[in-house]
User: What shape does this take?
Amino acid sequence: MPMAFDLPTIWAFIIAFAIFAYVVMDGFDLGIGILFPAFAEGRERDAAMNSIAPVWDGNETWLVLGGGGLMAAFPMAYGVILSALYTPIIAMLLALIFRGVAFEFRWRDPGHRKYWDAAFTFGSLVAAFAQGITLGGLLQGISVDARAYSGGWWDWLSPFSLLVGVALVCGYALLGATWLIMKSEGSLLDHCYRLALRFAVATIVGMAAVSAWTPFLANDYYLRWFAWPQVLFTAQVPLLVAAASVGFFFALRRKHSYLPFLIALGLFALGLIGLGISLYPYVVPRAITIWDAAAPAKSLGFMLVGAAVMVPIILVYTGYAYWVFRGKTGHEGYH
Assistant: This one.
């Protein structure tokens, strides 16, 4: 279907950008939580925590923008998606609260630090896995009748959604390892190079498995990827993933500091492009398009003015925070 640059499409891009920003920015600190048991107690864990301490709270701003934007711009889709995926979404939110409490209390209650470390890992793992299951449950399709959810309580749970959950956990762990390659030194840096290699392999395998399965979930997915002549365009996505993968392993071998993280971000961007190819113009696959679900044009226009002001402000203060806290971290903080 040709692209139509109208208000619903613009808002679809805004929400997609917010989701990508969240995955990128909160993904690496969730990944550090997933990797936390692999780090030695004491200096390594403290250095890993210090690397995200100045920015981790602000990263979830994008989750609020994505969820709030979906509710405001596409209220019908919000109601259907929340009804269908209520369980993994609530699990994700509770896990984010759990890990947030653990993050703060591990410093304030050192006598029970090992329990707070375990809670931090548990919350990070559950949040990442629940996000993957939510994406998988959406991608495999949601039963809709008369513009309302008509499926069962457990429709979101399937082998495909579990696969997406595992793949996203591996991807977040890769982001966490490559973030620490940029931010750490000494034994933790060497450790993270090894972890990045393992999770890069796992992430690429997971992406390949999800990508190979997705076209066979529904005939329209298959046609979007393989019908002529759009296959000439869609084939570029797996080719770019392959090229980025080769570049990633080359960067690891040459012990680059920043390039592995940037290439990992590129892999996530390519995954989002692939998701867009599969879904557009639907916000609920094969059931509700972005135009069916959109709020009234006057509401979308009014909100767009606010978004045009606030999104650049958020980007500026986020960029400033990352700039201020650039450089390597130690177990006592930045230097």
